[in-house]
Specification:
Blueprint lengths: L5 E4 L11 E3 L4 E5 L2 H13 L13 E6 L9 E3 L11 E6 L8 E8 L10 H13 L2 H4 L1 E10 L4 E5 L1 H6 L5 H8 L11 H23 L3 E3 L3 E7 L2 H16 L3 H7 L5 H4 L6 E6 L4 E3 L7 H23 L2
Antiparallel strand pairs: 1-2, 1-5, 2-3, 3-6, 4-6, 7-8, 7-11, 8-9, 10-13, 11-12
Helix pairs in contact: 5-10, 6-7, 6-10
Bound molecules: adenosine-5'-diphosphate and manganese (II) ion (MN).
Amino acid sequence: QSTLASASVLTSQVGGHSGVMASEDGSLLMKPALPLELAFYQTELIQNPALQGLRPFVPKFYGTLRLEGQAGEGGIMEVKPVPEEGMPKESLVLENLSHRFTKPNILDIKLGTILHDDDAPPEKAERMTNTAKNTTSFETGVRLTGFQVYDNTTGTAINTPKSYGKSIKRTDLPSGIARFFPCSHPAEGLPRSTLLPILQGIKENVEEIRDAVKGVEIRMVATSLLIMYEGDVEKAGEGVRYMDMDEDEDVPEEKEEDDSDDDDEEEEGSKWPFVVKLIDFAHTKHVPGQGPDEGFLKGVDTTLRLLEGRIKEVEAIE
Ligand code: ADP
Ligand code: MN
C-alpha cells in the first residue's frame, strides 16, 4: 500500500501509449486500461477455465485503481484511489517486469498479421490493414514496436523508437534482433558466454508460450511479447549461474514439499537474467469454437526463427 503513495512516469516504457506509471519503489506499474483489458485481467483470466493456460505468461495482476489528476513536474504524481465511478480512467496495477534488472534491455514485439478487431469500423479496418501490409506485420506476424538496449561502454540506455520497426522490411528483421542482442567482449553488449544461454532461455520461454496459446481459442489483436534481459555484464553473468544451479538441482517432487509457500511457483526463475511475457490485451477475446489465433502464432514462429538465427550468429562469432 505504501508503495502506491506516489508514482512516476515509467522511464523504461518502450512502446504503446504514454501514461504508464511506476510505483515509488519501481515494483509495480499502473496502466490506464480499456474495458476489454480490464475484463481480461479481472475476470477472464481468473474465472474462465479455458484461459488458465495463459496465466504463467502474463504479468502478475494486483488489482485496479482510479488515478486522480495528471503527472506534474518531473513526471511525479500523487496516487489517490478515487472511490466513486468518476471521471478518471481505471488503471491496471501490474508487476513491473523490469524492476528486478539493473540495466533492463527491453523489446516489445507486436504479434499478429492483422492489428484491428473484427468489429472495427470499416475505415479503421482499411487503415490498419494498410499499415500491416506496409510493415512486417502482414507477412511475418511481427513488428518490432520499440526497444531499449544498454550500451556498456557508456552505461546509458539507447532507445530505438517505433519509427524503426515500422519502416523496416522483413529481410531487416534479423538485423533488428541483432541490435537488441548485441554481443561483444567486453564492449557494448554481453560476452558470448553470457548472451548465448540467455538467448536459449528466451527461446525456450517463447516455445512455452507458443504451446500455451496453441491450445486456447482466443483472438489477441495487437498483443505483444515483452522480452527483457539483464544488460549489466556482471549481473547477467550472475543470473546465468543461477540458471545453471536450478538446472543441476533437478529433483522436482522433493522440491515442492520443501518450500511450502504458494508463492513458490512465481519465484521460480526470478533470479534468472531474462523474462518473457505477453502484454497488452486491449483487444483480446475468448472465441470458443473458432480455434487458435493463427496470425498470432505466425508471429510467435517468426520470433522463434529470429532467435534461432541470432543464436547461430552469436555462436559463430570468434
Ligand atoms: P498500450 O496499450 O499503450 O500499447 P502496453 O500494455 O502495450 O500498452 O504497454 C506499453 C509499454 O509499457 C510496453 O511496451 C512496455 O514498455 C511497458 N509495459 C507494459 N506492461 C509492462 C510490465 N508489466 N512491466 C514492465 N513494462 C511494461
Ligand atoms: Mn502495446
